[in-house]
Amino acid sequence: MTHGIDVRNLTARFGDVVALDNLSFSLTGGKIYGLLGRNGSGKTTLLSIIAAFRAADDGIVLVDGREPFENGRVTEQVCLIREAGNVVDGAKVQDVLKMSSNFRPHWDAEYAERLADMFELPMKKKVSSLSRGQQSAVGITVGMATRAPVTMFDESYLGLDAPSRYAFYDELLRDYMEQPRTIIMSTHLIEEVSRLFEEVLILDQGRLVAHDETDTLLRRGMSVTGPASSVDEFTSGLTVLNHQQLGGTKSTTVFGQIDEDKRAKARAAGVELGPVGLQDLFIHLTNGGGEQR
């Protein structure tokens, strides 16, 4: 079961600070989405509104065509795991899993036990006494085992060590292939997680900088390297994100459509075209010079 998400003219404020500024986009659902943004870009606020943890100040959010805020039939279909893990103070690991089973209609107790074994969670210990990594693993176990049609992870795996993070990524992808649902992952570990993303949304200061399929987005960014004059001529009319020069050789990162005819001209001019990683593209698009739409 998968649910789509529609966000229309969404605005959220904290006093005089605008966290989300007239944000609009649609997610068809049934995909793994990457939500990227610098600190303070509005990622956590957006996910909190989708999960009905807070109301929007203006605009509307629809999950499967319905507003989630104060709507129990929707919120039981949405699970947001934040970095803190969403656990009750003083509760044991086994209690957290039991409580989750009481409130989540799609809860898979057998899968929860398997994840707990994978992360070697001490079931009879209080969550508050666990290491940060183990607390993250508890939150991840809850998020995965809810099998919620909309499951969101807001930096909830940062406490894990590298081997555990990669084990989580592999398990998430494996389980998603068997149990498709809408998954949104907010992260700063872009290079680690980008292989999972089917679509990417990039926020900057509460606004949507980019939203596209990952492969399509990456094709719109490119490094152009060669003689400085040839590079300048080739990149004329394109959105220049960054450039470096050493002697007569220049490397420029651009964001824009480059058709086959222009690629042929690049080859003829001795200009080399190369890919740009998602993290590099993200850095440039949120550095004040990116394309806004």
Commentary on this structure:
With 293 residues, the chain is of the alpha/beta class. It has 2 domains: 5-212, Rossmann fold; 220-285, Alpha-Beta Plaits (2-Layer Sandwich). Helix 4 packs antiparallel against helix 5. The protein is elongated, with a radius of gyration of 21 Å. It contains 11 helices and 13 strands. It has a 6-stranded mixed beta sheet, sandwiched between helices. It has helices at residues 43-50, 72-75, 93-103, 109-118, 132-145, 162-178, 190-193, 214-219, 228-235, 260-268, 278-285; strands spanning 5-14, 17-27, 32-37, 58-63, 78-82, 150-154, 182-186, 199-204, 207-213, 221-227, 239-246, 249-255, 272-274.
Looking at the overall shape, the CATH architecture of the largest domain is 3-Layer(aba) Sandwich
Classification by helices and strands: alpha/beta
So, the CATH homologous superfamily of the largest domain? P-loop containing nucleotide triphosphate hydrolases
Overall 3D shape: elongated
